[in-house]
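Ligand: flavin mononucleotide. Inputs:
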Amino acid sequence: MKDFSDYRINYSKYSLLEDEIVKNPFDLFKIWLKMAEDDNQIDEPNAFTLGTVNQKNEPRNRVVLMKKLKQNGIVFFTNYDSKKGKSIEANNNVCLSFFWPSLEKQIIINGICSKISKEDSDDYFYSRPRNSQIGALSSDQSKEIPNRQYIEEKFERIKKSKVKIKRPMNWGGFFVEINEFEFWQGRSSRLHDRIVFSKSKNNSWQIKRLSP
Ligand SMILES: Cc1cc2nc3c(=O)[nH]c(=O)nc-3n(C[C@H](O)[C@H](O)[C@H](O)COP(=O)(O)O)c2cc1C
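Predicted complex:
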């Protein structure tokens, strides 16, 4: 294996200069998401790392999928009793990060998480393929299980029963209301562009540039 200290990329594809910056960061977010969507090196442009902090102040990150982009934030779906669900219950401050290596772009987002309505969770749950619904029903996410066979058998048992799958009460969406975006664009010689949008009390966005 190569020595990791020898890995070095000179980022040179794009820039993020003041004259390219829009007033509302959601517009820039949409532009970057569209670039990620159009890039055939990116399979899941909506995948992001979700950082939470639990009751014991321990941080944990994992990847989840953004399923909806709203006017003030984003929605993802999960099991409310999972580790992330429990952490969010104790502390609803979350950090999201998107990294698209082929675009040399990163976005770091801070926001506040809350459960979406049961109706909205139902709408999404029942729009999913039956096997995904069964998957959600058979998994007590983040709980220890004896072996792989246990979960496969549980899945098959539910599948065979042919009943209509009901959304488990502990499965649903979280809305992240975004109050800060950092747009990071890799540049040459490590002089990267970092532009931060912070929401102020009157809901306008303050823009600043950070040193790379
Ligand atoms: C590309 C990718 C997409 C994922 N999407 C989701 C998702 O949308 N919701 C989810 O609950 N877990 C998703 N996962 C699994 C999570 O990373 C994680 O393993 C799971 O949610 C349990 O996390 P927790 O124990 O920290 O709560 C995804 C994993 C990957 C790699």
